[in-house]
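Why do we care about 3D structure at all? Because function follows from shape, and shape follows, mostly, from sequence. That is the central idea of this module. The next example makes it concrete: a single protein chain, its amino acid sequence, and then its structure expressed as tokens.
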Amino acid sequence: MTAPHNATTRSLVAENVTLGYDGRTIVENLSLDVPAGKITVLVGPNACGKSTLLKGYSRLLAPTSGAVLLDGADINSLPSTQVARQLGLLPQTPIAPDSITVSDLVSRGRYPHQSWLRRSTAQDDQIVDDSLAAAGVLALAGRRVDELSGGQRQRVWIAMALAQQTDVLLLDEPTTYLDIAYQLEVLDLLMDLNRTRGTTIVMVLHELSLACRYADHLVAMHAGRIVAAGAPSDVVTADLVREVFGVEALVVPDPIAGTPSVVPFSRHHRPVAGE
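And the structure:
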């Protein structure tokens, strides 16, 4: 095994950013300071700006006003290699090159740490193997990515992000395509990464109860703005769920973790009057 990478605490701040596409504003004048060394989870309904904000943080999308600051410097003014060594991203729908193998894809996570004069080393190869093992896909190393199931591909992309060994990791719906067992494995893996290496993690999740279980800092968004932010137990209430998601729900303590657990009502499943 390679020696563990110990993350350096880095600040990531959005200052009054406005973000959008093709002249359409999605996020306007939003400010959010990501707590360093913590797990931050963005939640909210579809099209509320979560993924757009994550793209702004990763500099995939430049603000039309305001700035995203990495260690106090405008991220869009920094050299690409410098950013890639400090900040990793798993987008919502990553695309792999045709016919690439799992090990070759994951090894691309080492590119920011290499140069034309320094190609892959034995240490790089070990980091790739360790990342494959951590994501549970080491046995798939020689397979082509396009032959894998959606869940397998998702874990391969997570392995690539791990191999990059950045101090900040941004993930847009990392549990997409995964059944509940693998969802928990991936979220536990990210928590391990945060707790053992100090990696700052920002991710978008849809399952609100799981978000509460794994987040140190929860950010609830609606219509391009932040409705509430803080510890899950301080943020998630029945009123918040109604305001953000337009759903009536019971919010009760998770019997395992003690964090808020959201039990939504539906037309066919509502409390019986008088109970």
